[in-house]
Amino acid sequence: DAKTTQPPSMDCAEGRAANLPCNHSTISGNEYVYWYRQIHSQGPQYIIHGLKNNETNEMASLIITEDRKSSTLILPHATLRDTAVYYCIVRVTSSNTGKLIFGQGTTLQVKP
Amino acid sequence: DSGVTQTPKHLITATGQRVTLRCSPRSGDLSVYWYQQSLDQGLQFLIQYYNGEERAKGNILERFSAQQFPDLHSELNLSSLELGDSALYFCASSADLIGNYGYTFGSGTRLTVV
Questions:
Q1: Which of A65, A70, A98, B97 has the smallest number of Cβ neighbours within 10 A?
Q2: Across the interface, do A100 and B56 touch by the CB < 8 Å criterion?
C-alpha cells in the first residue's frame, strides 16, 4: 500500500489560504489521492480527489506534482469551521478492494 | 444527513458482553466498510463487504465479526468486550467494489465498555 506522510499539525489565520502538504512517494500509476477531513468526532467528510491533474471543487483545490509523489490541498479562504483533522489517502486499487487506509492526518487549527 | 445510517449512536456496556452495531448504506451502494477509531487514534480499517460477500479484512480481532445482508445493510458484532474496545465505530459505503464513485461515511457509533 502506498504510504502518505503529513505534518501532524498546522495553523492558519482565518480568511487566509490553508495549504496542507502530503507526500506519497510510493504511489502507483493508477492510484488516486483522496482528501478527507474529520471535524471533532464526526464521520469523515469527503473533500476532493485526483489522479494526476489538478482538481478544484467548491470546497478546495488539489495540486498534484507532475511526478505524483506529493500533493497539496488548498482551502482558499479558511474559516473557523475548517478546523479539523485532514487526511491524505492513497486509494488502494491493487488488491481489488476499495478500502481506504488512513494515516494520522494533519490537525489544522484556524485562528481568528 | 450523509445517507449512511448507523445505529445506535451511543452504546454503553460491560466487559465480557456482546453488542451489535448496525449500518444502512447509502441507497444504491453495494460496498460497506467498517472502521474503528480509538481515543486519539486514527481510523483503522476493519472489514469490507461487497454485495453480501467479504472482500477485504484489516486488523479485525477474532472477537469481532461482520456480515452484510441481502438488503445490503451490515452488522458488526463485537463479543467478549474489553475496555480497550471502547471507540468510535464508523461505517462507510461506496457504490462499487473499489470506490470509483467515492465514499460516504456515517456519523458513527460511540461504544463505551465499562
A1: A65
A2: no
Cβ neighbours of residue B88 closer than 8 Å, sequence gap 6 or more: A41, B36, B37, B38, B108, B109, B110, B111
d(CA B43, CA B35): 6
B4 Cα distance to chain centroid: 11
Q: What is the pLDDT of residues B26-65, one digit of tens each?
A: 999 999 999 999 986 789 999 999 999 999 999 899 999 9
Measured between alpha carbons, how far is B86 from A54 in angstroms, rounded to an integer?
40
Would you call B99 and A42 a contact, using CB atoms and an 8 Å cutoff? no
Give residue B100's pLDDT band: very low, low, confident or very high (50, 70, 90).
confident
Supply the DSSP symbol for B15.
Answer: T
- Residues of B within 8 A of A45 (CB-CB) are 105
Q: Which three cell numbers stand for residue A27?
A: 504511489
**Could you give the strand order of the β-sheet that contains B74-78, starting from the edge strand earlier in sequence?**
B5-7, B19-24, B74-78, B64-68
Torsion of CA B79, B29, B41, A96, to 10 degrees: 90
Which residues of chain B are within 8 Å of residue A38 when distances are taken between CB atoms?
Answer: 43
Beta carbons of A43 and B108 less than 8 Å apart: yes
pLDDT above 90: percentage of residues in chain B? 89
Question: Any bridge partners for residue A107, and if so which?
Answer: A9, A85
Residues of chain A whose pLDDT is less than 70? Answer: 1-2, 92-95
Q: Which residues of B20-55 are buried (b: 16+ CB within 10 A; e: fewer)?
A: ebebbbbeebbbbbbbbbeeeebbbbbbbbbeeeeb
